[in-house]
Amino acid sequence: MPYVNIKITREGGTTAEQKAELIDGVTTLLARVLGKNPTTTVVVIDEVDLDNWGIGGLPVEAFRQQQRGGGK
Amino acid sequence: MPYVNIKITREGGTTAEQKAELIDGVTTLLARVLGKNPTTTVVVIDEVDLDNWGIGGLPVEAFRQQQRGGGK
Amino acid sequence: MPYVNIKITREGGTTAEQKAELIDGVTTLLARVLGKNPTTTVVVIDEVDLDNWGIGGLPVEAFRQQQRGGGK
Amino acid sequence: MPYVNIKITREGGTTAEQKAELIDGVTTLLARVLGKNPTTTVVVIDEVDLDNWGIGGLPVEAFRQQQRGGGK
Amino acid sequence: MPYVNIKITREGGTTAEQKAELIDGVTTLLARVLGKNPTTTVVVIDEVDLDNWGIGGLPVEAFRQQQRGGGK
Amino acid sequence: MPYVNIKITREGGTTAEQKAELIDGVTTLLARVLGKNPTTTVVVIDEVDLDNWGIGGLPVEAFRQQQRGGGK
């Protein structure tokens, strides 16, 4: 009965299909590695506005500019 | 001085009155069971889009269809 | 299928019975107010060391001393 | 590599500049006090609707009315 | 730069190797499905005492007894 | 009435004084930047075992070895 919270930045193109793939993937991972019961595994995805996410002391967009094209 | 976070799926009809009832109910519960001071009890309710909530390896709507009309 | 996280300070005497009462109480509250299904309601209680909990800009024990005997 | 989550009530005027100042401030604090590496310090700010935030057993606006002009 | 929090019940035998497998698995999943940069993906695993985890209105051990040998 | 959760790796030497400095620092920051009331600002610090913290797809100690002496 694990609980998983995935926080990602809200980018334009995250689709319902991709979210379903995350839910399935992490539930399967917990079943495979720890034998956790998929039926009671809960996954919650939070999409966070770019202004509200900081790394390296900067909002994420400023951080990316500083990194010149770094990853998502 | 407890902190309580309640995450629920965002369904159409959750009203401000219902949220107030949750806030009051959980604060009262902590005061009754553990003697916690209501004045410094904080409650935060997160409403999560259905696409972003998974259970049983599926997004919640697909899970409900699979369960044939299971609960909220 | 709500998820509830209750954070409380770790005081000497929180018993398994009190925790069970919190779990039952909050699950019942969500069923009564919002019709949420108890079967898939998950509750996680975190007990936090006093040094690790701050309020009013102070660790909780210093805050309580300042308040001269305020509540838990 | 700390992770910091700041939850505040969603009031009209929180600007991107203020959020950047929070991100910078908390990252600097962790570097100064604990020597944590700013490069891998992550900060996530959640803005919570007033209806969804409770204190003292009341939604925050009712609590503020009760306190007659208390702080944010 | 996702942040993932995995909460599981603290059972006797969760090894460092299994935790490493969870960290690797969820990081790889986010890179594959959403193109997220593994370098800045943070994963935090919380192991929660059985008394502190509730489902179906019961502490997890009482719930399992009720379910007669249900999953972890 | 903000709520702040600070998660750090559990290293040997985090003292109560350092935690008090974090609590004071973040509470002061929120008062200065957003005018938040210190009296109702709650800070919770979680110290996470090294095995339970991942970055870059690795547990933090393996990540640090890979980075050859990178920061905390």
From TrEMBL, chains A, B, C, D, E, F:
Domain of life: Bacteria
Gene3D superfamilies from the UniProt entry: Macrophage Migration Inhibitory Factor (3.30.429.10)
Annotated 4-oxalocrotonate tautomerase-like domain residues: 2-61
EC number: 5.3.2.-
Any Pfam family hit: Tautomerase
GO-annotated molecular function: isomerase activity
Isomerase in keyword set: yes
Main EC class the enzyme belongs to: isomerase
Active site: P2 (proton acceptor)
SUPFAM superfamilies the record matches: Tautomerase/MIF
Keywords: Isomerase
Matches recorded under InterPro entries: 4-OT, 4-OT-like_dom, Tautomerase/MIF_sf
Family, similarity comment: Belongs to the 4-oxalocrotonate tautomerase family.
Name of protein: Tautomerase
Phylogenetic classification of the source organism: Bacteria, Pseudomonadati, Pseudomonadota, Betaproteobacteria, Rhodocyclales
